[in-house]
């Protein structure tokens, strides 16, 4: 499957794609609105960053206990329920006078609910598309995420100039309800991919199986840590330049769109497989420029260039699917999503803490240095694993 026309002619792909786009628009609008609301109330870069990316902190906890449901629950009903719950939580965040502690409790609850969604969505996409169409289909989802972030952050920034953050949260809640409706009407009721009831024991067993392979471990770490640290840089846009935060987020999303479009549609598979390390380095190095405290538009250009590096996740997802049995695809992709989002939450907390003690620009620079260092270490370890495999094959 090499054409977009063929992709969108695949049954169920179009409504699934539209629901994904609407969900991402809701996520970006609500995230920017909530971060702005918290920053206005507290003037804290740390609390602002954690409010926007805090749901990710709960992702790994959810993956530890609930992820077996990714392959053991009916996909349509599960995804519809998740988006309905998001709509309710986002509407509650818009309540006037809500204490900061209650805000973070709701943010944490959203993260627990979302921990199941990545695995269910990834496994369902793997079912809807043929094996040769997965990467193209996934790249279109990533491009939609980038476009919806551009649209969502630009629209969110414009809306915040006209209306209160709480109104933006209510609009996002309506988008989540729309997503739930599209999923309910557009998808077929499929049975679970794996027999058995979801349980903590089943989750731990499968996590252990997935984590037991060293190549899979390195693939997971490559998807989680460099990505999460750079999202920590992004979490400081509001405190770095409150008036231009929406433009910076939109620039980051545009760069991600360009990277996913290029990799998914134009780069040959043989070349694509070798680009994960250069792309992860590209993801971090432009943020070193923030040591000079650039203003607009230079900051936006650096952010856009860096975000092309998010295309590394496509390469690593393709590698993960090659290393994973088909019956564990949903769980494996759910663990990828939960771990990546958890690291994004940790990255936001780390960057916010450093910014609290120094400045947002200094924090961005230091976190980018850490991301480069992690990528270099993982590259060396990956080369060692490939060398060991080659020795075994020639023995």
UniProtKB/TrEMBL annotation:
Identification of the protein by name: MFS transporter
Any one GO cellular component localisation term in the record: plasma membrane
Subcellular location: Cell membrane
Keywords: Cell membrane, Membrane, Transmembrane, Transmembrane helix
InterPro entries: MFS_trans_sf
Chief site of localization: membrane
Spans through the membrane: 16-39, 45-67, 140-163, 169-187, 218-238, 244-263, 298-316, 337-355, 361-381
Membrane topology: Multi-pass membrane protein
